[in-house]
# Entry
Amino acid sequence: MPLLEITGLTQRFGGLQALSNFSCCLEERELAGLIGPNGAGKTTVFNIVSGFYKPTEGSIVFNGKRINGLKPHQVTAMGMARTFQNIRLWNTMTVLDNIRLARYAWLNYGFLSAVLRTGRYRRAEKAIETKAREVLEIMELTEYAEEFPKNLPYGLQRRVEMARALAGNPRLLLLDEPAAGLNSADVEGLIRHIRWIYDEFKISIWMIEHQMKVVMSLCRRLAVIDFGCTIAEGTPEEIRRDPDVIRAYLGDGAL
Ligand SMILES: Nc1ncnc2c1ncn2[C@@H]1O[C@H](COP(=O)(O)OP(=O)(O)OP(=O)(O)O)[C@@H](O)[C@H]1O
Ligand SMILES: [Mg+2]
# Structure
């Protein structure tokens, strides 16, 4: 049974058809990529899968359960975490508090209860702090624990966002353009961190990414989407040579 099974997904926004009968599967422990031109519908797939959009048609089964129509926090609680194309961190809180709050939210998805600090949360607090610091350590962020995300360079903010996603022990991590806006040194670091997360946490990762270096070096399997439809699926090698993909996305001299 696949970890994630998307079948016949269609999404309309008014007159615009962002996805047309899109289907895709992700197995347990896969590290796969979703690529394609701007506006192809990639983020829309992630927004539907993670509960931010309700699809016009189609079905999403995660870990054997149909998750259509669930709210984002319910999907998170089932073991799916994500990052955003435009970083969404809580800028008025420190890096450590960003991770802690994500952990609170995952343990009991009542954000309010976490803030109100009932007896149960006080008891859990120490464990949460320990886990948060552990994630920071793994992501090489310990020295920034007391900083505010907005004061950090972009590459570090992206890493904090990944750390926050990991705070909830996900089985599946969705990364929406993790390399966007990074310089080449940061991209090298990012590849290292993603590989590390994949090996250490033993999870599945599905990423959207325009930087071919990142997807080609990390992903074993890629799906290519154009105008809301899958135009190719295969290994990075197959995708690199696929005439439809070259025509629609990569261009002749791309690789
Ligand atoms: N909430 C929305 N309301 C209306 N249109 C939307 C909405 N979200 C996405 N779209 C449209 O759906 C299409 C697909 O957008 P999407 O963000 O999924 O593309 P993408 O493949 O992620 O592109 P990019 O590589 O630029 O991030 C675009 O035409 C976009 O303008
Ligand atoms: Mg996008």
